[in-house]
Design brief:
With 231 residues, the protein is α+β, with helices and mostly antiparallel strands. Helices cover 29% and strands 26% of the residues. A hairpin with a 4-residue loop joins strand 4 and strand 5. The protein is elongated and about 75 Å long.
């Protein structure tokens, strides 16, 4: 009987979902005050149809809560544009980088080169996530307070080509010569520093690991990008 199977699985403290066995660690104590309990799992996605294979939904009602965290890392060579005008290259790169992250709803993001490191988070996220604040400040790499910067979504103009991509959907406000804005500005906190290359790499490596354990309900995505200087 289904109930007998469920009882047996509970005694064994293991579950079978989607051809995957999930076993509770022996040292883990299941906390329950109202007769319910929760189990954190990772791996292949579990859907209601998988739970219904071992649970009677009326006898044992359940709720699936999904939490994911995505960390992206990448790098690219700056190329000829970098050699032509370094300040202009990074000014334009930052606009496109931030625009892409805003359009992609990435919670925290940074880019770095051999001479600088810049990290962006929203003021609300900075205020709400103690774990994120600790991850950013614990390394002591940012000695100055963050600078608030405003970005606005563009409207009008030619939306084909680069203007139709995520990297050109937002711009810093105010920015002369841009089309009219749509809606309100989105404020970000910009942390900046100019560390030694070795220190910056160590910080990025540590931060990438730390961000995985930070407030999953608040920080679900993070992107870091290395710009390889040339010349």
């Amino acid at each position: 009987a289904p109930h007998a199977k469920t009882t047996l699985l509970r005694i064994l403290q293991c579950w079978l979902f989607h051809d995957t066995m999930i076993e509770l660690a022996k040292k883990e104590t299941v906390q329950s005050q109202d007769g319910s309990f929760s189990i954190e799992v990772s791996g292949p996605s579990i859907e209601s149809k998988h739970l219904r294979q071992v649970l009677d939904s009326e006898r044992h009602p359940f709720v699936i809560q999904n939490r994911t965290k995505t960390v992206h890392n990448g790098s690219f060579d700056a190329g000829d544009a970098y050699l032509a005008d370094v300040p202009d290259f990074f000014r334009n790169f930052e606009l496109r980088f931030v625009s892409y992250c805003l359009e992609s709803h990435i919670d925290a993001f940074l880019y770095y080169s051999g001479s600088s490191l810049h990290l962006f988070v929203s003021p609300a996220l900075w205020a709400e996530s103690e774990g994120l604040r600790s991850a950013i400040t614990s390394a002591g790499i940012f000695s100055d307070y963050p600078v608030p910067v405003d970005y606005v979504e563009l409207e009008g103009g030619n939306r084909r080509g680069r203007r139709g991509r995520a990297c050109a959907a937002w711009t810093r406000h105010p920015q002369s010569g841009d089309p009219e804005i749509a809606g309100f500005a989105t404020r970000l906190l910009r942390f900046s520093c100019r560390p030694k290359k070795s220190k910056a790499k160590d910080y990025i490596k540590t931060f990438n690991k730390t961000i995985l354990g930070v407030d999953a309900d608040l920080v679900s995505s993070f992107l870091s990008c290395a710009v390889n200087e040339v010349g």
